[in-house]
Amino acid sequence: MDLILEGIKKAFLLLATLDREVLDITLLSLKVSGLATIVSVFIGVSIGTVIALNEFPGKRIVVSLVNTGMGLPPVVVGLFVTIFLWRSGPLGFLGILYTPLAIIIAQSIIATPIVMGITVAAMQQLPKKLRLQILALGATRLQMVWMLIKEARLSLLAAVMAGFGGVISEIGASIMVGGNIKGYSRVLTTATVMETSRGNFDVAIALSIILLLLAYFINLVLTHIQQRERKQ
Amino acid sequence: MVHKLMADGKKIMDQTILEAKNLCVERAGTRLLDVPHLEIDEGEVLSLIGPNGAGKTTLLATLCHLFKYFSGTIVFKEKEVDNELAAGEYRKKVAMVFQEPLLFNATVFENVAAGLRFRNIGRQEIKKSVEENLERFGIGHLGNRSARTLSGGEAQRTSLARAFAIKPDILFLDEPFSSLDPPTRESLIDDLERILKNSGTTTIFATHDRIEALRLSDRIAVMNRGRILQIGAPDDVMNHPADEFVASFVGVETILKGKVTGKKTGIVMVSVSGREVAVIGDYGVGESLILCIRPENVTLSTNPSETATSARNIFPGTIGRIVPMGLFQKVELDCGFPLVAYITHDSLKALSLCEGADVSASFKATAIHVVRK
Q1: Residues B348, B224 share a domain
Q2: Where in the sequence is the domain holding B70, given as residue range(s)?
Q3: What is the ipTM of this complex?
Q4: Which residues of B touch A143 (CB under 8 A)?
Q5: Do B47 and B66 share a domain, yes or no?
Q6: CA of A31 to nearest chain B CA: how many angstroms apart?
Q7: Residues B359 and B273 in one domain
Q8: Chain A residues with CB inside 8 Å of B98's CB?
Q9: Which residues of chain A are within 8 Å of residue B91 when distances are taken between CB atoms?
Q10: With CB atoms counted within 10 Å of each terminal CB, which end of chain B scores lower, N or C?
């Protein structure tokens, strides 16, 4: 019990004194996962909308592929991103393996199917006639799509939450393509794993608390927006 | 083009605003729509009536150019709408209201403003136009309410205001009242009737309610299975249905099949289930005819001594069923052939009619509408 109590006590001390290293790791985590979420929202929402709004042969297969992608194992993504970015790999010339950029790429690949899958579901839930109604009010195709995205905004917020939640807590890909380099590509999850394996439970607990709080705050903000929208 | 008599007696010729030729929509091998020719005059209100699945919505959506896949041509103000660009321009000049209000998750004001925003109209002008149309439909006080919190009637008013806000050249209404309860529907129809009259907006209005159609329209088209069976002035369609389907749809309750057996001057005798019915008209002996009799044209009496005139048909019959129909009682008779009559509650009492009673039913030969089979 002592181990845990001591750990928690020291963890709060680290947090209260705004430990430089812990702070840097937190900011990098936020930056990397935030950017990856933004990238995945752009790709996921646009492709998801195209899939949802168009009828084409093999649509079912595409949708089930996307849905499968929602559960893409991060280590598999990490493996393939590593291979691609490896010095002798197809994108090796970029020289970005073991950089934060590599983590952003890997995390985007993980989050995109999540956002896309929820987008497809959300857009398909809108009444079919709504599209005709928007067109019949004189909207261009682009205006129609924008209007539909606005109509699905609450579900799309859920997509953003799910995407961010998926990558901020992800470890496999981050450690494989980022390398957990101190002060450079070390994020909350990779640092937690390392500190735990070293027996530094206090630091590990501090990092875990930050991870939990981060996830909680982001979701709190999004939920707040969602609830306010719903009440109107 | 249709010639209309104006209030001052002057005859004006209406401009054709929309013309459709050889419209055809097919999906999965079935023909959903087949309209060889349709012309809409500027300012007229045309009703499309027909049962569910008759193709009314398909025709409206096709005329509104909402479907990519159809064959045929649509000519708007003498210009053919023949490509996606032209269709986009055309859609900016028309508006459609559906059975469901299909409002956006925003305030009532924003909903009514939506069409104007698509047209990149200035803030001030939008505000003015939206407020005007909210007032017009009696929902001026709801501007800031979320569309999600509206009642059915308020939502449909918002939907109509949204369509009128863009001042459409043609308005397509797809059963806008059918999901409303009767009092709400009544007050909305009253308002729409007034608004259409004042604005003179060309309107194509789909409904399965012939009373709505009668109230609002200059012309009625009866549709079934993707085709227009008859189109014309309301009284023309009501009183001279072109075929059996139209007759049953416009409220002719009695439809009899018979063969011409004899001729007198101006009158032919038609044998219906062994009974002779006198009918006005010149038909050849042996010809098969369909006789349509409106229930309000059948009178009942319990006095058999009433003399028959040559032009009046009188048949003894037995009452099978009496069904209350609001203002009327619907009496189903067996006169050797089925016959339906409407009578008031008072006459039902005065004649002390009941199910199983014997009565004599009469209807004028001139009240029978004849369709050649």
Answers
A1: no
A2: 3-93+168-249
A3: 0.80
A4: 118
A5: yes
A6: 33
A7: yes
A8: 129, 132-133
A9: 135-136, 138
A10: N
pLDDT score, position B222: 94
pLDDT digits (tens, 9 = 90+) for B140-157: 999 999 999 999 999 999
Nearby residues of B52 by Cβ (< 8 Å), 6 or more positions away: B208
- Tell whether the model's pLDDT for residue B3 goes beyond 70: no
Average pLDDT over residues A176-194: 93
Verify that B357 and B244 share a domain, yes or no.
Answer: no
The CATH number given to whatever domain includes residue B335 is 2.40.50.100
Task: Give the strand pairing for B219-224 and B227-232.
Answer: antiparallel
Chain B hits for A151, Cβ within 8 Å? 104-105
Same domain, B55 and B68: yes
Q: Could you say which of B61, B148, B166 has the minimum Cβ distance to residue A138?
A: B166
Residue B23 lies in a domain: yes
Q: What is the mean pLDDT of residues B48-67?
A: 92
* Closest-CA distance of chain A to residue B274, Å: 53
- Tell me the backbone φ, ψ of residue B16, rounded to 5 degrees: -75, 125
Instruction: Say yes or no: B272 and B327 in one domain.
Output: yes
Pick the CATH number of A2-231 from 1.10.3720.10, 3.10.25.10, 1.10.1410.40, 3.90.1150.10: 1.10.3720.10
CB-nearest partner of B118 from A130, A139, A232: A139
Give the number of A-B residue pairs with CB atoms closer than 8 Å.
56
The number of domains in chain B is: 2
Classify strands B94-97 and B170-174 as parallel, antiparallel or unpaired: parallel
| Same structural domain, B363 and B275 | yes
Q: Which chain B residue is nearest to residue A140, measuring alpha carbons?
A: B88
